[in-house]
Specification:
Elements (H helix, E strand, L loop, with lengths): L10 E2 L16 E2 L31 H10 L2 H4 L3 H4 L15 H13 L5 H20 L5 H21 L7 E2 L8 H9 L9 E3 L1 H12 L3 E6 L6 H9 L4 H6 L1 E4 L10 H4 L3 E4 L13 H21 L3 E4 L22 H12 L5 E9 L26 E4 L5 H7 L6 H24 L14 E2 L4
Parallel strand pairs: 1-2, 4-10, 5-8, 5-9, 6-7, 6-8
Antiparallel strand pairs: 3-7, 4-11, 9-10
Length: 455
């Protein structure tokens, strides 16, 4: 099977707003030349100031520089005409692309050469189109350049990992060099956020958390989970006020984000504790024992981290992403697994370091909504939108106060989990009123003060 690229692309000048075909799979080409409407000159219009708050992917891959160096060596330059016919030119890379058609042709050629499995090639092409459409809807004046820059880098990273797959350890530290995967992920997700319709709840509590970390204490964020982009959403809303948390937060991550080729490069830029979700534990009965052993290793790694102190860990005790109600279509935080909450609480208490558990609410499902139902197979479709998002944190909840107040202590575990979940739902409702109810900052409540520190 070949990955077909339609040949009916049209050329438009960058001096006007980009035109997008209404057909999902009709491709367009946009000249980045600075000349007239018919100019096809490749110029430096793709590059722009890195201080632009929307950012751009300016990181270069060593493969591109080595290809350029090889092309300029004396041996190549002095080759005779007969020799020239014996040397095949190096295949173009994603980083060489200057137009949409260039990018799609590289996908096609790598698939035809057998270096990209067809299903991954198709996923990459679809990812490009969905990302392009979402960023163009943002109305950003440099949307075309952002799409080309970010998608060229994303496709290059995906392809590189297909060629040489990265293996995640139980505790993965974000890869910041020689390629900065964290910054790459931030720049990729940033254009998808409608910052004017995004909100941070209780920034004062986030500041409180940062002070506890500075004092060597541990912090656990018990949160709902909505998209694969949750880590980037959290980091983007905190980077202007709490960059230490944004960059040092450790995420308890399911196996899908470290095995799906389209997701792996983004996961490589985050600090992770890798586990197998209960929802996917039995997908393949032959792998159940292996998954349990892997989870035991990750729990040991988590215990060691907490014993060292000054760690902040994000976990979704629901065991997966929120999904809309099949009848009402309403999005709500998925219920917590009380045993997961209790296991995390006991790990914190046994660390020998003061620890605190805070409920965190996330609202960002429009950004990259998950499949409506849990899928066993790796390779879900990536639907992408430009939308407002929200993050909120509420005060820490002390388990021992609940335990001592109950007549029947055995109820403490479920009651504690219910209180955390209830706090998240309350914060979620405030974020929903701000974003979907169009109330903005006026949606603030006595327990959730909304701010927009990035504006």
């Amino acid at each position: 099977m070949m990955l077909s690229i339609p040949s009916t692309a049209k050329l438009y000048c960058c001096s006007t707003a980009p035109r997008v075909s209404s057909s999902k799979y009709s491709y367009f080409v946009i000249s980045l030349g600075c000349g007239g409407a018919r100019s096809r000159t490749r110029s430096s219009c793709l590059l722009f100031c890195a201080s632009n708050p929307w950012g751009t992917s300016e990181m270069l891959d060593h493969r591109k520089s080595s290809l350029n160096a090889a092309a300029s060596t004396p041996e190549v330059a002095s080759s005779s005409a007969s020799d020239h016919h014996d040397v095949s030119p190096p295949p173009p890379s994603f980083l060489d692309a200057r137009t949409e058609q260039d990018l799609l042709l590289v996908i096609q050629k790598e698939a035809e050469a057998g270096r990209l499995p067809i299903n991954i090639a198709q996923g990459m092409a679809e990812l490009y189109h969905n990302y392009r459409d979402a960023v163009l809807r943002s109305g950003h004046p440099k949307a075309v350049e952002l799409v080309m820059s970010n998608m060229a880098m994303a496709l290059d990273r995906i392809f590189s990992d297909v060629q040489d797959p990265f293996q995640f350890s139980p505790h993965h530290n974000a890869i910041r060099e020689p390629f900065d995967y964290y910054t790459f992920g931030q720049k990729y997700i940033r254009p998808l956020l409608d910052f004017r319709n995004s909100f941070l709840g209780n920034n004062s509590i986030v500041n409180e958390i940062e002070k506890k970390l500075e004092q060597g204490e541990n912090v656990i964020l018990m949160s709902n989970h909505q998209t694969e982009g949750d880590p980037a959403v959290i980091a983007l809303l905190l980077e202007s006020t709490n960059s230490f948390i944004a960059e040092n937060l450790i995420y308890v991550a399911g196996d899908r984000v470290i095995t799906d080729p389209l997701c792996k490069p983004f996961s490589m830029g985050r600090n992770l504790l890798c586990v197998y979700s209960k929802k996917h534990m039995g997908d393949d009965p032959k792998l159940i024992d292996m998954k349990r052993r892997a989870n035991t290793k990750s729990l040991k790694e988590m215990a060691l981290l907490l014993r060292s102190g000054a760690k902040i860990i994000w976990i979704a005790p629901s065991g997966g992403r929120d999904r809309p109600d099949p009848v009402t279509k309403e999005w709500r935080p998925a219920p917590f697994d009380s045993s997961s909450v209790d296991n995390m609480r006991r790990l914190v208490e046994h660390a020998g370091i003061p620890g605190h558990i805070y409920p965190m609410a996330l609202m960002c499902h429009e950004l990259m909504p998950p499949p409506l139902e849990v899928e066993k197979e790796i390779g879900e479709r990536r639907l992408i939108s430009f939308h407002g998002v929200g993050v909120s944190v509420a005060p820490s909840i002390d388990y021992h106060k609940i335990y001592s107040a109950l007549e029947y202590p055995d109820e403490a575990k479920s009651t504690y989990s219910e209180l955390l979940y209830s706090s998240i739902c309350q914060q979620y409702d405030v974020l929903k009123s701000a974003i979907y109810g169009k109330q903005g900052l006026n949606a603030s409540s006595p327990t959730v003060l909304l701010t927009q520190p990035w504006l």
